[in-house]
User: Fold this.
Amino acid sequence: MIATVATVATVASAIVMLALQVNAPRLAPVSDEGRDGAFHAYIGKLKAAVSKRDEKALRKLVDSSVITTNDAGKDQRGWEKFRVAWGVGEIDGAVWEVLADLMDLGFFREAPGIYVSPYVVWKFPRDLDPNNHLVVLRDALPLLEKPSRDSRPVATLAFDIVKQIGDPLENGGFGWVEVQTASGVRGFVQSANLRSPLMPRAQFSRKDGRWTLSVLDRAR
Assistant:
């Protein structure tokens, strides 16, 4: 009889946790790149330019009036200001890793002539504070009890939006972040599997029949 009660209690607990997870805020990946053949071809060229860190090739793919932000958070226009702000002329300039990350996260079509990236910024729920929340990039991701790959999982995340607890830390050669789910469960996730809705964002526009990068904002 005791075993039966324990089993019922375990099942009931699992049902409650499942219900809480179903109601948890989530943000699944979105990518509409394939909906426009010309945009798909453009992204292929952009990926090639970024992988080679080819400034000349990138220049051809960026709008001459491209908008970016300076350190004071003010908009500025034009290639030269973009080049300086993002370190385009430097082999380790920020632009290369930022664009590579955005392309990994995919693009979605905001309008017939506009694509934006990443979804974790543009589709983040307005009723949540972007300053202390993060988006999980994976499905079936274990939430670990401790910042170690060998630690016991305390829950499973699936594109959840979670609250960040404290500062990131390093352990075992990996970056870790302590987070809390909407149901109050705390644990650790590798930082590589998380993105902030305050990360850099981009807009791509079709003008005169060709696609270009028209906006690249810094992390807010």
